[in-house]
Amino acid sequence: MDPLLSPLPRRFYHRPVLHVARQLLGKLLVRRVGGDLLVGRIVETEAYGGLLDPASHSYRGWTPRCRSMFGPVGHAYVYFTYGNHYCMNVVAGSRRHAAAVLLRAVEPQRGQATMRRLRAGSGPGILADKLARGEADRQLTNGPGKLAQAMQIGASQDGSDLMATDQLWIAGSRGSVRDVRWTVRVGLGRNPAAAWVWRCVDNRSSHTTPAARNWESFAGPTPTLREARILDAKTRKETEQRGSRSVPRPSSADAGVVE
Question: Is 248 domain-assigned?
Fold first, then answer.
């Protein structure tokens, strides 16, 4: 195997989720499909703060669906959404936080022919024909559902150890991403955390989520994790005062899949 495609060490993910979301930009998502090696440069991520983030799947605690978020860092959390899409996240931070980073988009670097075939296989239509002919490569992986389809990431990859190189991992980059911007996350609706600026993008990439390219952006994320804990405590207190035993239902990246 190419030594430049060696997996990132576990310690890379043992850092605050906002830091990991930023540092994943420019790294290489690698997937083995049969005899093909598919490689995409990560250009868009979203941080989900787990137990302190109302938009996170793990916010209300452990469930069978989000069990991987409560496992070791450096593992994949893959879930099914909208009835026909998978989305890949990377568990980061620590087990007590149950946090993860959603991979929203990559720039194809290797294996584009296989990616086109996998994306075009979603069904007949004008876009499928263009994808098959290589005329719509910017739409191969510019969204979490598209990314998962193009790299054949599904339920069997949930919980995968990203230190292994048998099927799915993340490798280091050959250079840093200098032009980075932060925006609100995609599609959170009325979620209490909808205004949090926790989406991170390579501002020079043309392979990011189309609908969000003209959004207001910032040089860094807000709130900080410390501020998010304060906001979470306030949200939970307000919920209790309304007489409800539950906390807000997370919408998380379910609403963030933009095709």
Answer: no
- Does residue 233 sit within a domain? yes
In terms of residue numbers, what domain contains 117? 3-241
**What are the DSSP calls for the chain, one per residue?**
--GGGPBPPGGGGSS-HHHHHHHTTT-EEEEEETTEEEEEEEEEEEEE-GGG-TTSTTTT---STTGGGGS-TTBEEEEEETTTEEEEEEEES-TTTTEEEEEEEEEEEE-HHHHHHHHHTT-SSHHHHHHHTTS-GGGSSSSHHHHHHHTT--GGGTT-BTT--SSEEEE--SS----EEEEPPTT-TT-TTTT-B-EEEETT-SSS-GGGTTS--BSS-BS-HHHHHHHHHHHHHHHHHTT-SS-PPP-GGGGG---
102: domain CATH number? 3.10.300.10
Per-residue pLDDT reduced to its tens digit, 217-253: 999 999 999 999 999 998 888 878 887 555 555 554 4
Number of domains in the chain: 1
Mean model confidence pLDDT for the chain: 91
Residue type, 230: I
Does residue 257 belong to any structural domain of this protein? Answer: no
- Residue 258 is assigned to a structural domain of this protein: no
Contact 4, 181 (CB under 8 A): no
